[in-house]
Amino acid sequence: MINITVGMATCGVSAGAEKILDTLKGVAKGIPASDVAVAATGCIGMCYREPLVEVSDGKSTFLYADVTEEKAKKIFESHVKDKKSVDEWVIIKNHSEGPEFGYLGKQVKIVLRNCGVIDPDSLDEYLGKDGYKAIKKILAGVTPEQVVEQMIASGLRGRGGGGFSTGMKWKFASMSKGPKKYVICNADEGDPGAFMDRSVLEGDPHSVIEGMMICGYAIGASEGYIYCRAEYPMAVKRLQRSIAVLEEKGMLGDNIFGSKFSFRLKVKEGAGAFVCGEETALISSIEGKRGTPKVRPPYPAAKGLFGKPTNINNVETFANVPWIILNGPEKYAAYGTEKSKGTKVFAIAGKASKAGLVEVPMGISINEIVNEICGGIRGGKKFKGVQMGGPSGGCIPASLADTKIDYEEITKLGAIMGSGGMIVVDEDTCMVELARFFLAFTQNESCGKCTSCRIGTLRMLEILERIVAGKGTEEDIPMLQELAQYIGKASSCGLGTTAPNPVLTTLKYFKDEYLAHIRDHVCPAHSCAALVKFIINPETCTGCTLCARDCPTKAISGERKQPHVVNESLCVKCGKCFTVCNFGAIYKD
Amino acid sequence: MKAKARNADIDISKEFTPEQLKKVDKIIEKFKDRPGALIPVLEEAQMVLEFLPMPILKIIAGGLNLPLSQVYGVVTFYSFFTMTPRGKYTVRVCLGTACYVRGGKAIYDNIKKELNVEEGETTDDRMFTLETVRCIGACGLGPVIFVNDNVHGRLKPAKIKDVLSKYN
Question: For residues A415 and A393, what is the distance between their CA atoms, to the nearest angstrom?
Fold first, then answer.
């Protein structure tokens, strides 16, 4: 029996996995299903090598990367007809060896235990991986109080970024009185560069649903909502299909597994507002209102959705829950540091050689993630730092990358753990421009309720725009710091209070870059267009005339087959010549 | 400014077919007494009509018995709703961090030039509407753009023309 699975999460599909699946299904036609099965699976986490195909012949597994239709046919033939693997294309064998094994070696998969392993649309496959055993186990005789205690003992902290103890959160919601309570799963993953939750929802939706059911039982809620951003259509579809199957089987609804516990689940789609990731804004949005945050207290645990006690956790948090219940809180707490237990999923993006999804035990260092798991920086460039926690987080310089992944350690540096986005930046990334980018993001997404956030971030953005245009002054830096302080103190929700973080951390660790822009009118990363000069290297220029023809202002001149030159006074710094040159003869200074 | 007016005086009987308008009534009917109905109604109505001009907002406000101010407030708050007509294809350029550091901005500038529109605008022939998004989670493939539901990854500015020419 040969099992062939194709990674069909958004990243795989974007890379062309659908065609690969069709091709494989096509060549498998006519062969009995008992001999060869072709199926879809979720995200294996190696986004940089998509499309990925895994073949299991019963004895061994073979993972193939960068699969094309041609390659897929050959892989199929080789395995099915010749009973042989195509060794030169195998990147990981038996999940334990092969040229790309380094990417998986240090990972510990709890949240992602089923992602890329099972067909996310198949309830049977989830059941085959101990699925819904945790909820069965507690319904068979564990009290809600005991569930809450186990969650506290596991040390699990909110994976959405806040880092509050999940068990304590459940305890507060369970103590609130009232016949009607709600469980909400926050799947409004909005940080740019973060895609952990999407992968879990697309690759293993049942684990999140089971986690929510356990939470419902623990706090006494009979209804749940999954608030998923509309930018994730595949996740929404998979959730809806999974819920429909469970309802059909009686595993969602009244008296689940013959117990007194009843639970219903709905999926609510977001409508494109970053601030709805904030829990009170999210609640307003489910209620059909503008997603503006409310003042806390009262916390949702006391007064949440439709005024009823509500517990909100994020996708990754819920996906941990069934594992903790089945394996015991001690086993979970064995991973990690003193105060940060378990594992954390990171979405690695930016300039890392291997961009993708990694799940690592807490306590591992940033360096280990970037250099050992993700293979360092692409193109042999110099590692400059990482941006953690999205627009609310901060930049950590390479010199501090030995810092351990731990809520408190990261916070000490001025960044935050956040939901798990980790953008790796190299010497070509301008830190002032990066700070400007994040501030433009929060400025755009500010809901407008608090003046400090609505107008303060705009003023900060104007200053940063001035600096990257080479028009900044020395007074701009203290002004940025002053504004940051006021915005942080005077805004009501997390979006506003953390908005200045990217600016503050880049000022702390990369002040020389700000000063270079202001004093010397130089962008050390050669990235800010206004401060860059384009120069043609006469040694490597072949005189092909491509750049001269493409230049919108006719600033490039030269004879055919002779080195060309850029006329500085006409150049508008659009960078087109730099992009079109086939010989790398144009450089920035 | 292309198609930016709030089109309060748009004649919906000319813009939409009677079937489309009937569907909107049915959507309102379906959600009427449910809590938190407004956003799903707007989402489904926009799927039928493609955009939500003021007269439609009035119909929805009346149908759900909500103040028009609340409906307008919600429509203008969320980036998914639009009050202006849309192109046959929506080009969404990802400007999330990962795409941005890999050159998403150059892709975006190139598309703007190619289509001759600014963000949120629709081309005169109503073929393309240009939007930006903050991360669609395909960071490993950055820079990426969406054309309707199709994702194009690992783009280079020079490839833009090719990609867009596939849509007509």
Answer: 5
